[in-house]
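Escalated from tier 1: protoporphyrin IX containing FE holo job.
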Amino acid sequence: MTPVMRFDHHHTRMRHGTFLEYKKFRYLKLATLVSVASIAAYVFHKPPVTPYGGTWLGYTLGTIGALLILMLLWFGVRKRQYSAADANLQGWLSAHVYLGVSLIIIATLHTGFEVGWNVHTLAYVLMLGVIFSGFYGIYSYVRFPSMITGNMAEDSFDSIMLKISTLDSEARKIAMRLPDHLVLAVQAAAQGTIIGGGLFTQVTGRQRNCPTTAALTIIQKGGADLKGDAAKHNHELYSVMLQRKRLVDRARADISYRARMSIWLFFHVPLSIALLAALAAHIVSVFFYW
Ligand code: HEM
Ligand code: HEM
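Tier 2 regenerated the structure:
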C-alpha cells in the first residue's frame, strides 16, 4: 500500500452551515441594508458629471468598499491568532460571507459602471474572483460534510485502510492456489493502487488504469476457464477483490471531498492578496493623478 499523503486544510472550526444563520441572519440583514442604502444613494445622487469613482458618493462607496476588504482580509489573521479558540469565528465568518457579497454592489456602484483596461479594473476583477471562489467555498462547506459522514458510515479512514490490508493478505492466500497471472494481478492491486496521490488524483478520486479495477476484470475473465476447486477459489478471490474495490472507492471519495473543500482556498487566499496590492495601487494612483 502506498503511503497516503492527505491534502487537507485546517478549516475554521464550525458546525458547518450554521454560520450562514448566525444570530438570526444578523449579517445578511446588515449586508442587505448597506446594499439597499448604496443603491438608493446612487439612484438619488445627481452628480454634475456622469457618475464615476471621483464624485463624493464615488469616494464614499470606494472608502466603504476598501474598509470592507481590509476587514475581510483580517479574517485570515484572526483565525490564526492564539486567542482564536475562544474568539467568535462563526460570527466573523458570517459577516465575512454576507458583507463580502455586498461588495459586488458597493464596488460596482463606486465605479459608476466605468471600467477599462487599467489597474482600477484589475482590482475590481480580482475582487470578483475572490468573491466567486468564496461562493464555491460556501457550497463546499454546505455540501461535503454530510457526504463525508455518509460515505464513512461507521468506519474511519484508518479502519478502511486496515480492512484493505486484511483483504490483501486473504487475496494473496487464495491466489496462491490459482494460476500465476492471477497472483500477479493481486500483487499489482496491493502494491500499485494509489489512494491519495497528486492533487488532481485526490480531487477526482480516480486512478487511470487502477490495478484494483484491472484485477477484478482479470479475475472475472480468468474464471471462465477454471473448473472445480479452482473455479471456487477464483470465485472467492473475486469477492475479496470486489470488497477491496469498494473500500478503495470509499477511501478515495473521502479524500476527494476533503480536497474539494480545501482547493478553493488556493484561489481565494492568493487572489485576495493580489487584490490588496491592486487596491493599494488603485488608491495611490487616483490620488497621484488627481
Ligand atoms: C479608499 C477607497 C477608494 C478610493 C479613494 C477610490 C477612488 C476612485 C476614483 C477617484 C476613481 C475614479 C478614477 C477616474 O476615473 O479617474 C475610481 C474608479 C474606480 N475604482 Fe475606486 N476607489 C476606492 C476603492 C475601490 C475599490 C474597493 C474598488 C474595487 C475593488 C475600486 C475599483 C474602481 C474601479 C474599477 C474604477 C473605475 C476605473 C475606470 O474608470 O476605468 N475602487 N476609484
Ligand atoms: C473581497 C472579498 C473577500 C476577501 C478579501 C476574502 C479574504 C479571505 C481570507 C484572507 C480568508 C482567510 C483564509 C485563510 O487564511 O485560510 C478568507 C476565508 C474565507 N472566505 Fe473569504 N474573502 C472575501 C470574500 C468572500 C466571500 C464573498 C465568501 C463567500 C461567499 C467568502 C468565503 C470565505 C470562507 C468560507 C472562508 C473560510 C475558510 C476557512 O476558514 O475554512 N469570502 N477569505
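The chain has two domains: 18-152+264-289, 157-262.
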